[in-house]
């Protein structure tokens, strides 16, 4: 699913108004009445106090429509106008008059802290103060109002985006943003919902189709693409009856040091489970028996005792995954450098191999085109330097990717796959995956896909999705805490099957 910027959303709005020959007021009515329908469906007329806080722009206009429909259906509604500006939008004004015509109680104007209403824990709030039009810091009393609403800790539904969130930078005051239980957003999800600094402002996101112009939505490239099952199914390549293990390549996983051989076990198994035809683990001598015992399907080549000092392969690998438990000893960096100069196979670079490159950036010059690099936030910082906020991080990561022509998998709750100006946001996975070794599994999985001939961007998107999906399957059975990296490996097969499970089958099971 595409993600648009605020200005693209506005354009979609305008195009729809022209192509459908409807007014902006009708579009507002259509959008907001869908939110009302959702509420009505869930509340079924329940008489809990509902506080609707409306700004003075179109987001406020949406709130006024919701208020009017709630009043018309007999709900217990109080409407407030948060008067942060005299510059009221025209559709706000029309809906303001419409509400006044039918409501017994006129909307209450909030102009300062003295006007704040009491909101109780058992009430409900509709947050329609700011939408995607926020473009400058809030005046202090509006920030206070947002804090006042948050303090009530009652169920809060934000319209389009939690008020106080920009769609292009982090908030000025981390507490000056509505904490929503659910955000009902129009047509397409917004980027802020998936970034670590801003994703936490809403527990749930519901995207509603308000019928914006299909052609425009289809033809306009978004600023990012959200990756769910629908997006990855077309990436999957099925197997031919007469394929053989040579068809799926012979990959090599390189890494490990004394006390960190487990990372290589996980990565090697993961590569095989993803479908690599053959896998070799290249480890220091101390890892030999461990690997032969735990992954009998793999071949093992060893180097000196406890750390890698040389990387000499006696075959041409189809793909390379390097870095798990590798260490950053000078000798290892040297071996890595020599290897990079020789190697032509597609690569995944993780963990200590990233740290080696951060220590010696010249290594980056030797990467094959579209090498996949999989940093967690600390490793990313070593590569691209510090960032102001998540948006700045994305810009810097894009610059880095363009400079070195590499694919970055920026790992996190929603891992970002970045290639030059393309951004893919993975939407599978869960907090149970914040556990030792889950990154090693990802490296093995991506290497397994490269080995089978998937191109690097497809491999990164599909592999990251399947990694999260395998984690989700475990969490459904065992919860978050008991999830360990080895379980992710064991659920790779199920994650593949899940790609093709029909919704009915899913429902029957649950
Ligand atoms: N296709 C769609 O997406 C549809 C969208 N719709 C709805 O429209 C919403 C966007 O509406 P919007 O453009 O009127 O902006 P909104 O967020 O209401 O802000 C109001 C105005 O406040 C101002 N302002 C900004 N920052 C400020 C500050 N700190 N302190 C004071 N003032 C500040 C700024 O105006 P300015 O003063 O800069 O001229 C801004 O324009 C969208 O989220 C969705 O709910 C639906 O109705 C239909 C379909
Ligand atoms: N809260 C989370 N939600 C979803 N996925 C997560 C979460 N935390 C971590 N992960 C995933 O787990 C993996 C952790 O990788 P990494 O930090 O390299 O672990 P390790 O070094 O222990 O192998 C990444 O793929 C990341 O996206
Ligand atoms: K809002």
UniProtKB/TrEMBL annotation:
SUPFAM superfamilies assigned to the protein according to its UniProt record, in alphabetical order: Ribokinase-like, YjeF N-terminal domain-like
CDD domains: YXKO-related (cd01171)
Cofactor note: Binds 1 potassium ion per subunit.
Domain YjeF N-terminal: start-end pairs: 9-218
Record-linked PROSITE patterns: YJEF_C_2, YJEF_C_3, YJEF_N
Example GO molecular function: metal ion binding
Domain of life from the UniProt record: Bacteria
Record Pfam families: Carb_kinase, YjeF_N
Binding site for K(+): 59, 127, 163
GO BP, sorted A to Z: metabolite repair; nicotinamide nucleotide metabolic process
Annotated residues for binding of (6S)-NADPHX: 58-62, 131-137, 160, 325, 376, 440
Catalytic activity, as annotated: (6S)-NADPHX + ADP = AMP + phosphate + NADPH + H(+); (6R)-NADHX = (6S)-NADHX; (6R)-NADPHX = (6S)-NADPHX; (6S)-NADHX + ADP = AMP + phosphate + NADH + H(+)
Binding, AMP: 411-415, 439
Annotated signal peptide: none
Annotated transmembrane regions: none
Cofactor (UniProt): K(+); Mg(2+)
Domain YjeF C-terminal: 228-499
Described purpose of this protein according to its UniProt entry: Bifunctional enzyme that catalyzes the epimerization of the S- and R-forms of NAD(P)HX and the dehydration of the S-form of NAD(P)HX at the expense of ADP, which is converted to AMP. This allows the repair of both epimers of NAD(P)HX, a damaged form of NAD(P)H that is a result of enzymatic or heat-dependent hydration.
Similarity comment: Belongs to the NnrD/CARKD family. In the N-terminal section; belongs to the NnrE/AIBP family.
Subunit structure: Homotetramer.
Name of the protein: Bifunctional NAD(P)H-hydrate repair enzyme
Organism encoding this protein: Aquimarina spongiae
């Amino acid at each position: 699913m595409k993600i648009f910027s605020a200005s693209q959303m506005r354009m979609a709005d305008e195009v729809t108004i022209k192509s459908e020959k409807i007014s902006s007021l009708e579009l507002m009515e259509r959008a907001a009445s869908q939110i009302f329908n959702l509420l009505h469906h869930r509340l079924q007329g329940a008489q809990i106090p509902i506080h609707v806080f409306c700004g003075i722009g179109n987001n406020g206009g949406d709130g006024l429509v919701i208020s009017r429909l709630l009043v018309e259906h007999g709900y217990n509604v109080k409407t407030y106008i948060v008067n942060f500006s005299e510059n009221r939008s025209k559709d706000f004004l029309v809906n303001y008059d419409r509400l006044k015509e039918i409501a017994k109680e006129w909307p209450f104007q909030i102009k300062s802290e003295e006007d704040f209403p009491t909101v109780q824990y058992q009430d409900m709030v509709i947050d329609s103060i700011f939408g995607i039009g926020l473009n400058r810091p809030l005046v202090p009393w509006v920030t206070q109002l947002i804090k006042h609403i948050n303090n009530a800790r009652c169920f809060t539904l934000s319209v389009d985006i939690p008020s106080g969130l920009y769609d292009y930078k982090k908030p000025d005051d981390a507490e000056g943003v509505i904490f929503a239980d659910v955000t009902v957003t129009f047509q397409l999800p917004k980027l802020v919902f998936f970034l670590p600094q801003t994703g936490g402002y809403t527990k749930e996101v519901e995207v509603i189709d308000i019928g914006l112009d299909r052609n425009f939505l289809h033809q306009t490239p978004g600023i990012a693409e959200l990756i769910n099952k629908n997006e990855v199914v077309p990436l999957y390549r099925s197997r031919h009856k007469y394929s053989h293990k040579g068809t799926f390549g012979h990959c090599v996983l390189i890494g490990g040091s004394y006390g960190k051989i487990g990372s290589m076990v996980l990565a090697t198994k993961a590569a095989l489970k993803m479908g690599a035809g053959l896998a070799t683990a290249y480890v220091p001598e101390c890892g030999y028996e461990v690997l032969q015992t735990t992954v009998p399907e793999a071949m093992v080549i060893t180097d000196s005792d406890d750390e890698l000092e040389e990387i000499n392969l006696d075959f041409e690998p189809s793909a390379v995954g390097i870095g798990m438990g590798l260490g950053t000893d000078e000798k290892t960096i040297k071996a890595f450098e020599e290897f990079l100069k020789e190697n032509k196979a597609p690569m995944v670079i993780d963990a200590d191999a990233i740290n080696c490159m951060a220590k010696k950036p010249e290594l980056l010059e030797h990467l094959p085109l579209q090498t996949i690099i999989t940093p967690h936030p600390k490793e990313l910082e070593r590569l691209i330097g510090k960032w102001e906020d998540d948006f700045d991080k994305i810009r810097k990561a894009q610059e880095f990717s363009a400079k070195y022509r590499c694919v970055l998998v920026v790992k996190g709750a929603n891992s970002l796959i970045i290639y030059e100006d393309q951004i893919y946001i993975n939407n599978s996975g869960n907090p149970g995956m914040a556990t030792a070794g889950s990154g090693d599994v990802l490296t093995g999985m991506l290497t397994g896909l490269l080995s089978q001939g998937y191109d690097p961007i497809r491999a990164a998107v599909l592999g990251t999705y399947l990694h999260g999906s395998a984690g989700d399957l475990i969490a459904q059975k065992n919860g978050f805490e008991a999830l360990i990296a080895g379980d992710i490996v064991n659920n790779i097969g199920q994650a593949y099957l899940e790609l093709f499970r029909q919704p009915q089958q899913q429902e029957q099971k649950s």
